[in-house]
Design brief:
Elements: H1 2-9, H2 60-74, E1 79-81, H3 88-100, E2 107-117, E3 120-130, H4 134-156, H5 161-175, E4 177-178, H6 189-194, E5 196-197, H7 199-212, E6 217-224, E7 227-236, E8 239-243, H8 245-248, H9 250-253, E9 268-270, H10 272-275, E10 279-281, H11 297-300, E11 304-305, H12 310-322, E12 327-332, H13 335-347, E13 362-366, E14 371-375
Helix pairs in contact: 2-3, 4-5, 5-7
Length: 376
């Protein structure tokens, strides 16, 4: 009888799960563990993520699991036992780490092993496969550091949280091209070394640099116009805003055919209401409701109009044209004002009343955000 019981106690149920990185279609491939690979030791680790947005949305127990997993990743541990027996916690905490730490580029895949005794969960082990050796990671970091330092030095010169986001938004778009075929485009290697990336790379770099410059920032994932997408949630002066660097790059949207990438400021520091017109959030942690407009680009630059003032709008167009700017954008409080401006300046061509000698323009309407952009 005792022998049979001991044999039953040795029966384990092994489960593997695929963990999604929640980027632009990237996926971590899981592996099946054998019973002997489920570690038995449980270690206490230090919390280093008290300033991270997603970490602070978790319960105390989940924060401990997050800390254990992060410690394993940062120290290249390939198998650690966790302080949870709930396997779903592994995916939740891994996605939380990815949202809080855009700089982690060396994880190739991860999985969990579950050990059950008599049908009851006994231990869960977190297993990580690395894309690079610690030596290779150190070499990549050394190569990236001069570029990262340039970004951080420029941000340190800024006088406000808003200025940091505007400078970084513009700098990333101007210096890092949007290219679906870019190597390592799901991580920061593509940004700081390759100078070409996609939405996940932009979001990772933005999170890392803003966080390092003192602005709490997380990576948010979901869809945009039905396609997998990644962008950022940042806290400026105590209020939260969304930032989508990818949609700020006209190359990614095909706005200026045949021309160089321009900066579309429409997706710099926007509200939840504005974002959700064309984005869908798909994360397993709570996100703040973004309602403030104080740090929106158009408000800051006095390019926002909540009433029809034809001469004030025309003056903005004229100023940009006279200064030989590549383009100018104006934003309106509602669709009615936008349509009125469109009819007057574009359809009726009254833009010529303010931009003397203008013969050709290219214009892009953003009817979701009521923004009219004119390229000279």
């Amino acid at each position: 009888m005792d022998t049979n019981r001991r044999r039953c106690a040795l029966l384990s149920l092994l489960v593997a799960v695929t963990l999604l990185f929640c980027g632009c279609g990237s996926e971590l491939i899981s592996e099946v563990l054998s019973k002997g690979e489920v570690r038995q030791e449980l270690e206490l680790v230090e919390c280093i993520s008290a300033d991270r947005y997603v970490h602070n949305t978790l319960s105390g127990e989940m924060q401990m699991v997050y800390d254990e997993m992060l410690n394993a990743i940062l120290n290249f541990r390939d198998n650690v036992r966790l302080s949870t027996t709930n396997t779903s916690d592994v995916k939740t905490c891994y996605n939380a780490i990815c949202a809080d730490y855009g700089e982690i580029f060396w994880v190739e895949s991860c999985s969990y092993g579950e050990l059950s005794i008599k049908g009851r969960p006994y231990a869960v082990s977190f297993v990580v496969n690395y894309a690079y050796t610690p030596q290779e990671v150190a070499a990549y970091k050394q190569q990236m550091q001069p570029v990262i330092d340039q970004y951080l030095e420029r941000l340190a010169e800024c006088e406000s949280d808003y200025e940091k986001t505007e400078v970084l938004y513009r700098k990333l778009i101007k210096e890092v091209g949007y290219d679906l075929s870019a190597e390592n485009n799901q991580n920061i290697l593509s940004v700081f070394l390759g100078k070409e990336t996609v939405c996940q790379g932009y979001a990772c770099a933005t999170q890392y640099l803003l966080q390092a410059s003192g602005i709490p920032c997380a990576i948010i994932t979901g869809t945009a116009q039905g396609q997998p997408h990644a962008w950022n949630l940042a806290c400026l002066d105590g209020d939260y805003y969304y930032i989508d660097v990818t949609w700020g790059n006209t190359d990614s949207m095909g706005d200026v055919a045949g021309g160089p990438a321009q900066v579309n400021y429409g997706y710099l520091n926007i509200t939840s209401e504005e974002l959700l017109k064309n984005h869908t959030i798909q994360v397993d942690f709570p996100v703040k409701m973004c309602e403030s407009t104080e740090n929106n680009y158009y408000r800051k630059k006095k390019l926002f109009f909540d009433a029809w003032d034809v001469d004030a709008i025309g003056a903005k167009l004229k100023k940009a044209y006279d200064k030989e700017k590549d383009c100018v954008s104006v934003k309106f409080a509602d669709r009615e004002l936008f349509d009125q401006a469109w009819d007057y300046f574009i359809d009726e061509q009254h833009i010529t009343d303010y931009c003397e000698g203008i013969s050709q323009i290219y214009y892009v309407p953003d009817k979701d955000l009521n923004i009219l952009t004119i390229y000279f």
